[in-house]
């Protein structure tokens, strides 16, 4: 039982660190620089910025959890009746890329 409790805490920590939903596009704009964050392979306006004369100065990528799923903690666990035996774990892993553009 202690083993499942520890596993549950670890999963909860990853859930809190990763956030509930990571699919996002964030644009921060100054006069001469723009930061664009693209998560989980979503569509972006990056090409449009490059066509408008912006140049990529820095690019950084890291793995990110795109979605989560609920699984049973043990074989005899009934997910519909026993809510205490649910574990949340990563379902899809994607990439988050941060671009720093300057004019």
UniProtKB/TrEMBL annotation:
Record-given protein name: Putative Alpha-2-macroglobulin family N-termin
Highest rank taxon of the organism: Bacteria
């Amino acid at each position: 039982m202690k083993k499942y409790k520890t596993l549950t805490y670890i999963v909860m920590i990853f859930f809190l660190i990763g956030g509930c939903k990571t699919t996002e596009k964030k644009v921060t704009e100054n006069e001469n620089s723009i930061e664009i964050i693209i998560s989980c392979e979503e569509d972006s306006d990056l090409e449009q910025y490059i066509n408008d004369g912006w140049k990529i100065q820095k690019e950084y990528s890291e793995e990110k959890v795109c979605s989560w799923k609920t699984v049973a903690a043990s074989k005899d666990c009934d997910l519909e009746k026993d809510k205490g035996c649910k574990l949340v774990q990563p379902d899809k892993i994607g990439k988050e890329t941060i671009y720093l553009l300057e004019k």
